[in-house]
C-alpha cells in the first residue's frame, strides 16, 4: 500500500472515531474535509455530503456570516483562534449547542495560506451541568439566608420573655423565706434558662455569620481585667469537676489594648468551656503571651491546653463545622455544636485563625494569635479603665430602683422607653440614654444592672 494511501486511510479512520468535530475548508469557506461527527451534527449521513458546501447551507445567516468573518480573520492574520466558547446551531431545525472551538490556518509547502482547519468540542452537557450547579447554589444561598433570618427573628423573640423568666427567678431567690427545695428549684430554673439563653445566642451569632453581618466593635480594654473575668468563670466550672485550672499571663503584655471585649471573651470562654467539658482528670491551662510588638501595637498569642480525651485527625477536620460535635463524650455534653464554628469565624474576622493540635488520649491544644493596636490615648492606657459615668446627670432614687427592677426581670422594652424619656432632660442625660438604649437592644440585663447601680443619685 502506498504511503500516501495509508496515511489517508489512517487519517480518515482516526477522524471518524473522534468525538470532536474535525473539518477543513478552502479559502472560499467550502468544506474540503470533515469527519463523521461533523456530518451527523450538521444533519447529513456521510462526510462526503459536506464536501463543496458552506456553512450557509446549514446555519442561519447570522451564524454562518459570523463563522465566515472569524475564519477570514484567521486566514488573513495567520493567528489561530484557540478554545473559544461559542453558542451555535446544529442544523436548520434550530437545535442549539455549546462548542469549544479552535481554528488554525492551513499552509502549503510554500508557506501560502490555502484554507482553514478546525476542531469543535461539544461542551453542551458541561454547560448544562454548570447552569444547574449555579441554580442549586443560588437556591441553597437563598435557603440559608431565609433560615438565618428566621433564626435571627426567633432568637430576638425568645430572648425577651426568657430574660423576664430569669429575672423573676433571681428576684424570688433573693427572698429570704424559701425552703431548701424551693431555692433548689429556682436555681434549676435559672440554670436551665441561662443554658437556653446561651443556645439562643449561639443561634443568633451563627445567623449573623451566615448573613455576613458579624460585626466587631474594638474598644480600649484592660486586658488583665478581661482575662481575670474569663478565668474566674472557668475556674468555678473546673472546681465543680474536681480538675485543675491555671492561667498564666505574660507580664510584658500591655495593660490596655484595642479589641472587641465581648467577642474575645466569647472565644476564650468557648475554648476553655470545651476544654473543661471534655477533661475528667488533670487540668486545663490557658496561657497568654506576647508574640511580637511594634509602635502600632502588639501581637498576642492565646493558648488553651487540656489533659482531656483528645481527638483524632479526622475529628479535628470536622470540629469547626456548624452543629457538629465529635467524640464518644458527645452523649453527655450540652450545647449546639456551634461554639467552635462561631469562635473560628470571630477569630477570622479579627485577622487570624485557630490552630488545633491533639491526639486520642493525649489532650488538646487550641491556639491563635491576634494583632491588638495600642490605645489611642496615653491617659486611657494609664487608667486602664473606661471613662467614668458623668456625675452631672443625677436621677431620683425611685427611678433608679425602677430601672434596677426592669433590668432584673429583663424588661428591655420599658428600659428603652425610659431611655427615650431620659434623653429629653439634658445633654448629659442624653449620653446616658444612648448607652442605656444600646444595652437594651442587646438584651444585656447584667450590664444594665451594673450601669444603673453606678449612676449618680439625686439628693432627696
UniProtKB/TrEMBL annotation:
* Biological source species: Piscinibacter terrae
For this protein, the record's InterPro entries field holds: HATPase_C_sf (IPR036890), HATPase_dom (IPR003594), His_kinase_dom (IPR005467), HisK_dim/P_dom (IPR003661), HisK_dim/P_sf (IPR036097), PAC (IPR001610), PAS (IPR000014), PAS-assoc_C (IPR000700)
By what name is this protein known?
Virulence sensor protein BvgS
UniProt function note: Member of the two-component regulatory system BvgS/BvgA. Phosphorylates BvgA via a four-step phosphorelay in response to environmental signals.
Q: What UniProt keywords are attached to this protein's entry?
A: Kinase, Phosphoprotein, Signal, Transferase, Two-component regulatory system, Virulence
Give the reactions, separated by semicolons, that this protein catalyses: ATP + protein L-histidine = ADP + protein N-phospho-L-histidine
SMART domains (UniProt xref)? HATPase_c, HisKA, PAC, PAS
Q: What class of enzyme is it?
A: transferase
UniProt-listed Enzyme Commission number(s): 2.7.13.3
Which N-terminal stretch is annotated as signal sequence?
none
Pfam families in the record: HATPase_c (PF02518), HisKA (PF00512), PAS_4 (PF08448)
Instruction: Enumerate the GO terms in the molecular function aspect.
Output: phosphorelay sensor kinase activity
Q: Which residues form the Histidine kinase domain?
A: 153-374
Per UniProt, residues of the PAC domain are 82-135
State the coiled-coil residue ranges.
none
Judging by the UniProt lineage, the source's domain of life is Bacteria
Amino acid at each position: 500500500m502506498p504511503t500516501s494511501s495509508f496515511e489517508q486511510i489512517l487519517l480518515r479512520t482516526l477522524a471518524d472515531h473522534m468525538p470532536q468535530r474535525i473539518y477543513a475548508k478552502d479559502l472560499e469557506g467550502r468544506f474540503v474535509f470533515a469527519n463523521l461527527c461533523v456530518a451527523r451534527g450538521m444533519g447529513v449521513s456521510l462526510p462526503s455530503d459536506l464536501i463543496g458546501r458552506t456553512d450557509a447551507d446549514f446555519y442561519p445567516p447570522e451564524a454562518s456570516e459570523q463563522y465566515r468573518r472569524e475564519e477570514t480573520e484567521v486566514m488573513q492574520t495567520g493567528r489561530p483562534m484557540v478554545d473559544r466558547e461559542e453558542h451555535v446551531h446544529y442544523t436548520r431545525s434550530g437545535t442549539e449547542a455549546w462548542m469549544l472551538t479552535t481554528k488554525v490556518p492551513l499552509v502549503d509547502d510554500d508557506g501560502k495560506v490555502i484554507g482553514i482547519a478546525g476542531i469543535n468540542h461539544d461542551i453542551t452537557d458541561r454547560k448544562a451541568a454548570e447552569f444547574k450547579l449555579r441554580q442549586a447554589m443560588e437556591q441553597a444561598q437563598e435557603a440559608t439566608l431565609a433560615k438565618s433570618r428566621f433564626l435571627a427573628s426567633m432568637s430576638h423573640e425568645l430572648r425577651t420573655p426568657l430574660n423576664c423568666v430569669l429575672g423573676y427567678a433571681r428576684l424570688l431567690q433573693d427572698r429570704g423565706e424559701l425552703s431548701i427545695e424551693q431555692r433548689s428549684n429556682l436555681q434549676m430554673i435559672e440554670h436551665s434558662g441561662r443554658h437556653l439563653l446561651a443556645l439562643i445566642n449561639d443561634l443568633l451569632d451563627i445567623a449573623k455569620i451566615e448573613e455576613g453581618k458579624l460585626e466587631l466593635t474594638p474598644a480600649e480594654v484592660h486586658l488583665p481585667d478581661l482575662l481575670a473575668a474569663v478565668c474566674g468563670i472557668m475556674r468555678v466550672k473546673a472546681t465543680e469537676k474536681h480538675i485543675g485550672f491555671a492561667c498564666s499571663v505574660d507580664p510584658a503584655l500591655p495593660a490596655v489594648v484595642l479589641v472587641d471585649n465581648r467577642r474575645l471573651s466569647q472565644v476564650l470562654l468557648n475554648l476553655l468551656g470545651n476544654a473543661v467539658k471534655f477533661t475528667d482528670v488533670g487540668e486545663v491551662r490557658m496561657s497568654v503571651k506576647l508574640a511580637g510588638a511594634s509602635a502600632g501595637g502588639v501581637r498576642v498569642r492565646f493558648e488553651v491546653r487540656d489533659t482531656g480525651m483528645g481527638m483524632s485527625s479526622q475529628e479535628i477536620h470536622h470540629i469547626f463545622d456548624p452543629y457538629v460535635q465529635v467524640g464518644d463524650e458527645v452523649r453527655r455534653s450540652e450545647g449546639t455544636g456551634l461554639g467552635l464554628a462561631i469562635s473560628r469565624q470571630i477569630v477570622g474576622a479579627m485577622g487570624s485563625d485557630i490552630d488545633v493540635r491533639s491526639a486520642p488520649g493525649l489532650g488538646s491544644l487550641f491556639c491563635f494569635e491576634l494583632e491588638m493596636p495600642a490605645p489611642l490615648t496615653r491617659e486611657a492606657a494609664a487608667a486602664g479603665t473606661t471613662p467614668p459615668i458623668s456625675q452631672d446627670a443625677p436621677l431620683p432614687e425611685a427611678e433608679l430602683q425602677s430601672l434596677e427592677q426592669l433590668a432584673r426581670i429583663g424588661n428591655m422594652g420599658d428600659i428603652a422607653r425610659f431611655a427615650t424619656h431620659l434623653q429629653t432632660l439634658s445633654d448629659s442625660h442624653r449620653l446616658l440614654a444612648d448607652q442605656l438604649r444600646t444595652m437594651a437592644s442587646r438584651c444585656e440585663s447584667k450590664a444594665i444592672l451594673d450601669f444603673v447601680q453606678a449612676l449618680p443619685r439625686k439628693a432627696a
